[in-house]
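hey m, so remember when u said the tokens were messed up on ur end? i reran from scratch. heres the input so u can diff it against urs
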Amino acid sequence: MMIRPAAFDYNTQTAASNRMQGSAGAVPEAAGLALQEFDTAVASLRGAGVQVCVVEDEPVPPKPDAVFPNNWVSWEADGTVVLYPMCAPNRRLERRPGILEDVAQACGYSIRRLLDLSAFEAQGRYLEGTGSLVLDHCARRAFACRSVRTDEWLVRHWADLLGYEAVVFDAVDDAGVPFYHTNVILSIGHRVAVVAGDAIAPADRETVLSALADGGRDVIEIDQAAVAGFAGNMLEVMSVTGNAIYVLSARAEQVLPALSRARLAGGTDRLLPLAIPTLERLGGGSVRCMLAEVFCPA
């Protein structure tokens, strides 16, 4: 599921906790550039055989981050759809329960349970979907780094409800500031994982790396410079023909060292880079954030 943005822009409400957002310098054509980047990304995904359900954003009220739906909804393989509590008030406007049935029908998905956690916003507890949670679906582990947007109690509550083991840790950028979302420093595929190991607190590092390597997965460590280029914000998806495709931004592909890129390519069937410079610069998120993957129930 992808949301075609109607009012993309720099979000002042998220900037305080997202140091990956670029300068708020005037980009009057930002909304138009974002639409071009979005439409090209959708065409590339479909050209690679990935089924994409596009939902049009509603222009009123304006939602500058609507292009990042993975923070407000997740679709689980058991038929559970989860709605998440969001930190920024204007991001709470992105939640649109009314579109869920249409998306489910378009994707051949059957909603068996709706789990709405949004009421925790009133308690000041936030868990921003698969931004806060990076999931190992095979081992049933939910990785999460603590931040103002990722409440540890809610991580463990979610894990209990969905049948996952919670792996909670601290991770900071090169200025010592906690990363706002786990998915900017960690990506988990079936055969590979990409992680900013040095960003993880020493007390937690071995636990996280060992859990990622469980089952023989190749763990590719990246540095803070690669994280700044969104090389941690990637997602492996499946084409309609069963090919594993690792989707990343063109910038992320460029900042990955040659050996790391080769290892990533060797651990999947195809790398698919998408050029989204405006979305990355002003939104502070990348390809993974644009994709709310829908798992067809068994």
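this time it looks ok to me. Residues 40 and 144 are 31 Å apart (CA to CA). if urs says something different then somethings off w ur setup not the seq
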